[in-house]
Amino acid sequence: MKIVKEAVAGTLESSDLLVKVAPLADDKVDLVIESEVMRQFGAQIRKVVEETLRQLGVRSGQIVIEDKGALDCAIRARVQTAVLRGAECKEMNWSALS
Amino acid sequence: MKLRRSMLFLPGANAAMLSTAFVYKPDSIMFDLEDAVSLREKDAARLLVFHALQNPAYADIETVVRINPLNTPFGLQDLEAVVRAGVDIVRLPKTDSAADVHELESHVERIERECGREVGSTKLMAAIESASGVVNALSIATSSCRMIGIALAGFDYVMDMQTERGDGTELFYARCAVLHAARVAKIDAFDVVYSDVNDEEGFLKEVELIRRLGFNGKSLINPRQIELLHNAYAPSEDDVDYAQRVIAAADKAEKEGLGVIALNGKMIDAPIVDHAKRVLQKAQASGVRK
Amino acid sequence: MSDEIVFYTTDPHANVAEGAEIRQLLAQCDLDFEESIGQFVLGRHGRSLVACAGLDGNIVKCVATAPGYRGESLSLKLMSEVIHLALECGHLHLFLYTHPKNVSFFEGCGFYELAEVPGYVSLMENTPVGIKGYCGRLQKKREPGAKIGCIVMNANPFTLGHQYLVRLAASQCDWLHLFVVREDVSRFSYRDRFALVQSGVADIPGLTLHHGSEYMVSRATFPDYFFKEKGIVGDCCTAIDLLLFREYIAPALGITHRFVGTEPFCATTRKYNNDMKHWLQAADSDAVPVTVVEVPRTACAGVPISASEVRRLLRAGDMAHVESLVPRNTLNYLTHNDYVT
Asked: What ipTM was reported for this prediction?
């Protein structure tokens, strides 16, 4: 899936996260994660995000995440929403999203 | 016999509420993709609910999703997502006739086949929000063997009736019609939400009314209302005492192979036994009324 | 649901009644309404206005919550709405000016501090990779040498005066980094200005021509709107822009000297040059000072050459004089694009 425009998903509220995606000229994923619980859960958050991006087939893009202590399921949902919006994707393949 | 007294509404776009609502232990949780979600967030809410449904925290609680009507650009996508995510019950809003349920059912069945879910395992409930819905309540309630309940939704209904919410008089016919349809179809009946979360007294008054009418329960918008509702639905100590004796008598009759159940020299028939079972179920769920 | 605060956006100029309510809320919070704000996000509890935040392009301004409603969750909802609205208007990257005492709050909203004038103002941006990423890209263009010069020019349009300044600076340094102001608010478009600079410096050795950015001489770095009404037009107005240069851009490229032409005509530019000496050299900062070199302008027939003079002559239709002030390419451009009246 290719990110073709800037997009945002989520909020800054507690237990949520804000995901911003933007196209990148280079063929790489530049992922930046900021979290209030970075020390305890930073590695876990990164793992969930990277897995979600891999599932979506994102190979290029700038992804910035502001996490406010969200559960894994919220992280997956927000990352997918931002990427699908940024890829202007209308056709969903639900089995690839779970 | 599933107990469905409290059905807690959760706005589908709210990650924080989706991440914590299971702690309140309502009988069912209803994720809302319809009115509580702005147009901008329809896609985001659908994905949040899709993942929340698969969260193990919701494994032990009955999940309901209110999808958008199928004649909007969102309804079918909502359905695709939630059936695949394993939702227990799909709630169809603005149901006017049995045809609406049939349309929904055909899509549900197709999706079940596509994703390998057991056909028929997705249950349905219909929200009745118009005069036609109320008039067609019986055919809606009996439209499908997937139906587990019908709910009255007051906000749109009173507008359709050219009136407004008040002391409940305006809902009198609709409540009775929906309730009778549910009882004929042997499914559950749910009452409207009580939207002033700060008015505990008003809420309890309405709960007492619908309980006496015979509703199984009520849609709730605030977790604070759960305990109040459960307590109001809890049987009294005397009720429990009597129900225990009825069940004991029924057990005894069965053990002894008697065709007739007797308690204190009176004959007891099946509806009394069923009622006693429901009383004990409620008592087990939330104790006796305080 | 009666507990809920409903958010929506409004144009304060089109909705006069709401504009008045916004003014009132801002006044309660000791803030002034700014006319340049085209969109406000408003939060209402029932009928009362309890929160607002304005968007002026990609700059967030006038963020206020009503006394009695302050609390993290309302502000976070408000700022989330602002971020979504801004994207709908085409801005993912946002800047925000605030008093330094509010910096930690906005950090909780995903904003990062860029520069601070202690006691007065802080500039923040809503990404952890904004200026860091920018400086990373600049670093790749570092050149060796002990004396590394820099010029930031608007070149509106490029004149013989600019050419003289670039040639002189390049000859005095081991390397020169030349930036063209990117903000498109000048008479000549950025594309055209950049192209004219490019052709005008093509034969000057030892320099790199860079595109400007939002981090230098942009609407975001010049918050003069922020101070005008408060009467603090003093040093602060240019301080943020110059601190960004000293603390981020200069270290990224190893810049030791910044060159400017003396400014005989334009008061704003003259003030900017004076402030430069303060903020790049004298002011307290963790970053090493950058030496400001003010070069007297080259003159033509006794009159210093400047772009503002060229624009004045163009307006007057005095092409004969313009011809003596600009390089050939600029002249061709002006002639072929109907700038001559």
From this structure: 0.94
